[in-house]
């Protein structure tokens, strides 16, 4: 079997992934994700996770309906904390030591985000779940994933998608002629307007030369394959 290619990774999970494609949290789906994550812990890989909150609330949707954008975004940050706690519970049920760190302090339920403490948790073999985004409105959890990956010196961002196995020339769910890229540069992602992640996050990854793997986590063992460096999904990086 291939040895892990990456020793420290950031796994980005959307809120929709935790909700199973519907509103709220699907315990069975969260349990499946926890099983997939716990199975790669035996490889000795350090895993940090960034969760979204779109299964509960989207700030952009609230803003579009007339809500103050900052207020709507803060509500979205709170939604990510709910998801983080659900994932933490599922992982610890499997015996995986986990810490939730939030960019907005709420000490009764989670640690405040402290870079050095997060790295120390990883070095001790604990999974760290980053919640409440960057703590600032107008920034997505995609940007959070890029920022945290740089801060903790992760080697790669694993962008786990539901029902999509990589980056396509167009949306494969609406365009039958869409073809998947095996690899693509961040500059091409930006110039072609591909919806891999938002432009702020894409630029941050490009400027700091951190690669990303986009893959379908519905396939059992996909996270492990990505960490081992097996051919899976689409590799997004520099030239």
Q: What's the structural domain tally?
A: 1
Structural class: alpha/beta
Residue fraction in strands: 15-25%
The general outline is globular
**Would you give the CATH topology?**
Carbamate kinase
A few lines on this structure:
The chain has 239 residues and is α/β, with parallel strands linked by helices.
What does this structure look like?
The two termini are about 30 Å apart. This protein has a 9-stranded mixed β-sheet, with helices on both faces. With about 240 residues, it is an alpha/beta fold. The protein has one domain (about 10-235): 3-Layer(aba) Sandwich (Carbamate kinase), CATH 3.40.1160. It has 9 helices and 9 strands. The chain is about 40% helix and about 20% strand. The mean pLDDT is about 90. Helix 2 (about 25-40) crosses helix 4. The chain has helices spanning about 15-20, 25-40, 60-65, 70-95, 115-125, 140-150, 185-190, 200-210, 220-230; strands at about 10-15, 45-50, 100, 110, 125-130, 155-160, 185, 210-215, 235.
């Amino acid at each position: 079997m291939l040895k892990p290619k990456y020793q420290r990774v950031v796994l980005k999970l959307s809120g929709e992934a935790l909700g199973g494609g519907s509103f709220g949290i699907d315990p069975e789906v969260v349990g499946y994700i926890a099983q997939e994550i716990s199975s790669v812990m035996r490889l000795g890989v350090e895993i940090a996770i960034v969760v979204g909150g779109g299964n509960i609330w989207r700030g952009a949707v609230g803003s579009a309906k007339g809500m103050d954008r900052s207020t709507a975004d803060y509500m979205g940050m709170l939604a990510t904390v709910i998801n983080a706690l659900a994932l933490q519970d599922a992982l610890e049920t499997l015996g995986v030591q986990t810490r939730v760190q939030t960019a907005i302090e709420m000490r009764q339920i989670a640690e405040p985000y402290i870079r050095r403490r997060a790295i120390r948790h990883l070095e001790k073999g604990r999974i760290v779940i980053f919640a409440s985004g960057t703590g600032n409105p107008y920034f997505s959890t995609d940007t959070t994933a890029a920022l945290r990956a740089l801060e903790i010196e992760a080697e790669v961002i694993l962008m786990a998608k539901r029902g999509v196995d990589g980056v396509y020339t167009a949306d494969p769910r609406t365009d039958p002629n869409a073809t998947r890229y095996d690899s693509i540069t961040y500059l091409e992602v930006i110039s072609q307007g591909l919806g891999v992640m938002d432009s702020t996050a894409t630029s941050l990854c490009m400027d700091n030369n951190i690669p990303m793997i986009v893959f379908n986590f519905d396939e059992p063992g996909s996270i492990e394959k990505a960490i081992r460096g097996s051919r899976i999904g689409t590799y997004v990086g520099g030239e």
